[in-house]
Amino acid sequence: MRSNAIITPELARALSELSLEMQRQVGVLIDRKGHIRETVVGDARTLLLPDLSGYRQGRDRLSGLRLVHTHLHPEGLDDDDFTDLALLRLDLVAAIEVTASGLPGRVYQAHMKPAYQDGDVPWEVLPAVTAFELPEDFPDMVSALEQEFARNRANVTAGGAGDRAVIVHVSQEPRAVAEASMAELKELSRSGGIIVVHEVIQRRPVDPKYVMGKGRLRETVVKAMQFGAEVIVFDLNLSPAQVKNLADFSDLKVLDRTQVILDIFAQRAQTREGKIQVELAQLRYLLPRLSAKHTAMSRLTGGIGGRGPGETKLEIDRRRAQDRVTHLQREIGKLGDRRRLRRNVRTGKGVPAISIVGYTNAGKSTLLNALTKSAVIAEDALFATLNPVSRRLRLPREQEVIITDTVGFIRKLPVELMAAFKTTFEEIDPADLLLHVLDASSPEIEDHYATVNSVLAELEFEGKPILVVLNKIDRCEPELVQGLTKKYNAVAVSALDRDSLGPLLDEMESRMPGMESWPAATATQTEHHAV
Ligand SMILES: Nc1nc2c(ncn2[C@@H]2O[C@H](COP(=O)(O)OP(=O)(O)OP(=O)(O)O)[C@@H](O)[C@H]2O)c(=O)[nH]1
Ligand SMILES: [Mg+2]
Asked: Which domains, and CATH codes, for the chain?
């Protein structure tokens, strides 16, 4: 017997006899040196394997274990075997048929394929042999396989550092809607520093347990392994139970849309108030997920999806988290008091207020900058703005107003989390006019419009006068702009072109309630100040 012969005829025979006697599947997990590391006993049809996470060797490596077990039925490898092979990253799975005499019959074996086409299975089934014809060169094949995995991965991951993720959409929405939502999730991922290596769309009702079909889930996990992804991001909001089921099944980190958004918030929060708001939002999201014995918790809170604002780490202990929420709420209350005081000083002077609202990336900050010649951060990223920023603005008839830029809205963000951005809404509250900025160049404009309106309604601001501003018209055909202007009763601008803003300024002025009674401005107030 050679030292690298992993399945010896003696072992096959021993397992087979034991299995017949017990009328159960039995198996062993053997390492590459041929040592038995675990023994497993199942029932007549399945094995239940122990937790093998301790054997994981990193993304390009298999676990170093092969599973050799018996089958009391004669049909060769079954679905459970392939699942174990893929999800546990086994070097090899082998099933030994137990014959009526207790002697080992045929031996079926399979290993993962380093690369495969869509629609193909990701494993290679070897020709069945008898226990006496087992090949002995398997260790060489394993190292060749691992080299292949590493090579594939190098191709996939060239050019970019960050966490790699597979993103998944499951719904019965029309394909175009699903694709648009995925495009947005991809954008969100990019803004959050996640590299998307593979996308899966499955059109079916959301499964209460695993979100997607189990077969498709298994395939997705295998894809994740092959592309070197350690994260699956779902394009919907997962229940705590779903997160746990998915994490347990896949051994991958499982995130949902809200967590990606919160992670972006955490990375971008700059001010003390912003940081507190983000941490509050994260804790509110995590609290219901912090059940006493939640094994997936470390997956929820480590690394992406669990970045705290600034350099802090997220608090994960449930009771302390609750205390922290109370503490942060008190803090934010104090900061809010100061803010309100400042605002009262302003409004006490009779300065009217305008708030800019709209979908994220619509161009709100760019518009504020263009209107007030200031330099608020504006960039091609989702949620560039987290805190309201106010500036003074002089309208054509010399009337001064306070204009405020706010955090962008987005679909599927639970409104309780939006509410963490309370200061944004406190700024909207006293506004005499809302500018709803719409990106005219987005194919999703209708959806953005509806999302913003529904968030405004949920926040009970729908009664306020709203002026729709069609932005980014420099990117659109004139006929399209004409149609949209009519449809939304809007003013069209390009925030990148200050000369296009004249009609907007006029319209703002005429739509401001009580405009006629404004006091005339004095000649000395010509500068634009930050508030
Ligand atoms: N072509 C074009 N691009 C624009 C226009 N207005 C804004 N942008 C670009 O759109 C991107 C987003 O602009 P922002 O002003 O940051 O958008 P925002 O609505 O404040 O976004 P959040 O703060 O993330 O919600 C930036 O890259 C801008 O340069 C425009 O009129 N035309
Ligand atoms: Mg902004």
From this structure: 9-155 (no CATH), 160-343 (3.40.50.11060), 349-517 (3.40.50.300)
CB 260 within 8 Å of CB 238: no
Q: Is residue 227 a contact partner of residue 163, using CB atoms and an 8 Å limit? A: no
Indicate the pTM of the whole model: 0.73
| CA nearest neighbour of 166 among 198, 141, 193, 140 | 198
Distance CA 240, CA 293 (A): 12
The CB of 472 under 6 Å from ligand 1? The reply is: yes
**DSSP 3-state of 405:** strand
Spatial separation of the C-alpha atoms in residues 22 and 40, rounded to whole Å: 13
Q: φ and ψ at 371, to 5 degrees? A: -70, -35
Q: What is the pLDDT averaged over residues 2-20?
A: 77
The H or E element spanning position 436 is strand 433-439
Those residues whose C-beta lies under 8 Å from the C-beta of residue 521, and which sit 6 or more positions away, are: 394, 398, 399, 400
| H helix runs in 92-191, sequence order | 138-157, 175-191
Say how many Å lie between the CA of residue 445 and the centre of ligand 2. Answer: 17
Vertex 401: Cα angle to 468 and 530 (nearest 5):
110
Q: Which atom of ligand 1 is nearest to the CA of 407?
A: 25
Centre of ligand 2 from the C-alpha of residue 369, in Å: 10
Q: Which ligand is nearest to the CA of 379?
A: 1
For the stretch 350-397, pLDDT in tens is 788 999 999 999 999 999 999 998 777 777 777 777 777 888 898 888
360 lines ligand 1 (CB under 6 A): yes
357 lines ligand 1 (CB under 6 A): no
